[in-house]
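User: Fold this; tokens only.

Assistant: Input:
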Amino acid sequence: MSLISGSYSSRSRPVLHGNLGAVSAAHPLAVAAGQEILVAGGSAVDAMIAAQAVLCVVSPDACGLGGDMFCLIHARGEAPLAVNGAGAAPMMMTRVSADGACAEGEGLLGTELMINLAAAQRRGGPRAYLHTAGVAVSDADGMTVSSLVSVFDDFGSCVFVPECGITLNNRAGGFTDGANAAGPGRIPVHTLAPAMVLTDRGTLALATPGADGQVQTLLQVMTGIFRDGLDLAEAVRKPRWRSEGGDVLIERSHPAQTDLARLGHRLRILDDGDVRFGAIVCAGDIDDAPIALSDWRRHTWSGVA
């Protein structure tokens, strides 16, 4: 008998209702940190920072202070605020070679650093499924936060800065050419996509890892809620698909497999809960009260205070 069938085995999760606040995050210990801050009287932003700090410890391969951070903040009755924490390329970068390798600056330890962009991007294959961590929080005052932190690939650049105790990201691997070409102070195209929806009943914050699959996962969840009329828990639970490299990746229990194949899509059937289908964290200020919900996929969790 298998007592625990797998890390991502538990299915539909309930929507939790809090008094002081509610938090959803990529790891249960991050949720616990957010709850502690809410109980101590902290705001949704305070709880988000605490939860992300814990994620930097328990998931250093995915996120850290050397990574990028995107965040959306909404206080009840006010306009949403967006925080762009994307790191720019070094200002000492002096050239970009014709073969796509970024040149180095004298200020970087005085040593030339060559970057092979083609290798860094790993074109033709999937990347960065795991290396993003989300936190969504709402508090009793109606402040709601949606956030994502990422070092891009496994442990980012794998360059550790002992003076700071952090690992630097390798987001420069996202540079290509044209408008997305590398250069001093430039920021590459980004996949981080925390979301926030303002509804008649209040604010809903959602986020998920999954590289360019993030917007695909968010699209399916939002379509389920706002077009198909599903409740929040069911919209997060339902089977998902993902477009990747010309294929449509699809969870084994998805009911649309036959119809998609008939339309000519090339399907790759994967086990339900495969990491490529993301993992939603969700919190909100709904009917003037904080709520939270976590995906059953991966190790996401939620809690209230």
